[in-house]
Amino acid sequence: MSVTEKIFQWLNRVPPRVLRAAEKTMRAVPGVDARMEQEYARMLGDLEPALKPYARDFSAYTQLPPTGVDRAVILEEMEALNARERAKWQDGFVSGAVYHGDAAHIDFLNRVYALHSQSNPLHADVFPSTSKFEAEIVSMTAHLLGANASNEIVGTVTSGGTESILLAMKTYRDWARDKKGITAPEIIAPVSAHAAFDKAAQYFNLKLVRIPLRDDMRADVDAARRALSQNTIALIGSAPCFPYGVIDPIPELSDLAREHGIGFHTDACLGGFVLPFAEKLGYPVPPYDFRVPGVTSLSADTHKYGYAAKGTSVILYRGRALRHYQYYTATDWSGGLYFSPTFAGSRPGALSATAWAAMVSMGENGYLDATRKILETATKIKNGIREISELKILGDPLWVIAFASETLDIYKVMDAMTKRGWSLNGLHRPPAVHIALTLRHTQENFAERFVSDLRDAVEYVKAHPAEKGELAPVYGLAANLPLRGVVSDLLKRYMDVLYKV
Ligand SMILES: *Cc1c(COP(=O)(O)O)cnc(C)c1O
Question: What mean pLDDT do residues 460-464 have?
Answer without folding.
Answer: 93
